[in-house]
Amino acid sequence: MMAMNRSDHIDDDACYRALCSHDARFDGRFFTAVTSTGIYCRPVCRVRTPRRENCRFFAQAAQAEHAGFRPCLRCRPELAPMDRHWSTEDASAILLQQATLWLDDPLHWQDADGSMGERLAARLGVSDRHLRRVFEDRLGVSPLQYLLTRKLLTAKQLLADTDLPVTQIAGASGFASVRRFNAAFLDHYRLNPTQLRRASTTRDSDQGTAVRLGYRPPYDVVATLAFFRQRLIDGVAFVDDRLRLGQTLRMDIAGHSHRGWLVAEFDETRCQLVLRVSDSLREVLPQVIHRLRAALDLDADPASINAVLHGPFPAGDGLRVPGALDGFELAVRAVLGQQITVAAARTLAQRLVNRFGEPIDTPFAELTRLFPAPDVLAQAGSDALGELGIVKQRQAAIVALARGVSEQGLVLNGSADVPATITALKALPGIGDWTAQYIAMRALRWPDAFPAGDVALHKAMGVQALKHPAREAEAASLAWKPWRSYAVVRAWSAGQVASSSGASA
Q: What does pTM read for this prediction?
């Protein structure tokens, strides 16, 4: 693969070669703005390739829009995977990645106003001025300009692919009023929102609303779905031979509980995923999209990851880190999976759902129940949990975890403060470093998590016979930074070993 610099520095000649090839591996890693048309496109756009002298290249869509370019209506930049540039040493890069992760989460878009930058800076422990300076130096845009592009592109997708009312799209995209929404569209795109409506949408009467999501190849779809199939809970999820993953979902947002289902089907020819959601989740569709992108690791950049891991794991170039639609569910299952096999952990999770899960009606016979809510498990008695075969130590861990989420605001998703969350998890009874790291890897979407105490990992790495295998595994893993989560998945896959700890969740 041709060399291409990351994030704030782009090799224009390399970008133009990638543009000419329409290579999906570069989708979302840069955008091409055409000076003769005022439009910016993805590298996979199939319009006639513009002349080199008419092209400008940007690492972020926000940069192209800030320069006055409008998104292409054909290739649709909103479908591109996000560009994640991870660093563990550069303080400014770490700050930028933490800030963009937070800004990318639609949960934080509601009531966004001029104080957004100040609130984000306070959360990151820096001044608003310093945060703006990092954004300007690295991206050439302010945090609010970056956020506005994210909101507008989300709204553009909802306008093009759904029949949601414009007023509802404005609210779902984080705009305080339809007036502000219309004004932003006119200012940036020189179009009324309704002009982006397509003649028809992919919505069916009983199969929900459909949208498309892009990803970069290579992607080992079969391996990812096999991972989920091995761990699925009957009634909560299914995986079938059509490369589909279906699941029930509860989303508690701003005091409102949304319950429904989703089905995601891979379209490998286009490097896309077709997502269908129930009518009950249409109001929070941006949040559903965000969660699914994280759960299926659609924003991973294989080129950057493989540059570090291809040597030690040459057969794992297409593997992703499977995440979770519900971070609380993943954390509970991580507790249940401590020191037992995959099959045993799945049995315990099934019992938990059968006892405490809420029934739900869906058009799919495989989807009939929701995973238990945090407030339900927070009140679960030891007798009821014990009857399911859950030992006392794990009973205490599950209840403490549920109370942490429902009562203390413990956040278990990709925009969480990872070090603080790991510390909070390890302070709970029955949760040690392995469990916290595993939750960080799959629920918090931290690419550099490493459950050093995992027995299957030790066997795959060949360190299980040593006196201090966890310490030796940790030392050996330093060569894989900042992609140790991906190295763990590749090691498990290469070893083909059923873990007696982490991989069972």
A: 0.94
